[in-house]
Amino acid sequence: MIKKLFLLSTLTLAMAGCSTTDSATESTTETTEDTTEEVKVETITEAEVDEARERWAEAIINIGAASEEGMEEATEKAEEVIETLYAYDEGAVLFKPTKAAELPFRATKEEALSYFVGGDISEDSGFALEPWTDIRFDNHETIIDTDSALASGEYYFTSGETGDETKVEYTFGFIRDDEGNLRINLHHSSLPYGG
């Protein structure tokens, strides 16, 4: 009889302990759920990606046009392009420009600026200073993953000096910044393989 009472008492205490643990867990879960903010992420659209590419093309053309007024104007325009279209302030940017061999990747704003208008890197003569009069895209494919997007294809640059068109292959990656604007966080550009 004493054994039965002892077992019954032990079982009752064990169940009470489990019950308390469950209540504490529920309470913690509720507290956590109450303090969690719901963050709504607006999915990037293909139209936004197209618009972002067109803004980039227009900006490159504008840098070249500004160079006709002087290098100071072209540099200011290029700094504005890097500041507003690229995601250097958001995190890492994977930028591999077309005509870059000595320093093939441009990890900083200063390195990107040198590529567009010339500067500290000896191989840079200022890609955007051509000037280009037209840049058109032939997009191969776009991949959208809610808050990021990738687009790949060919773009064609028309020289303002010769009228010749140069075909270049590209991959752009985009993320959305805190203000809702698309920013370039990946830009790989290369001439087609000629082998």
From TrEMBL:
<feature type="signal peptide">
    <location>
        <begin position="1"/>
        <end position="24"/>
    </location>
</feature>
<dbReference type="InterPro" id="IPR032710">
    <property type="entry name" value="NTF2-like_dom_sf"/>
</dbReference>
<protein>
    <recommendedName>
        <fullName>Phosphoribosyl-AMP cyclohydrolase</fullName>
    </recommendedName>
</protein>
<keyword id="KW-0732">Signal</keyword>
<dbReference type="InterPro" id="IPR016878">
    <property type="entry name" value="MICAH-like"/>
</dbReference>
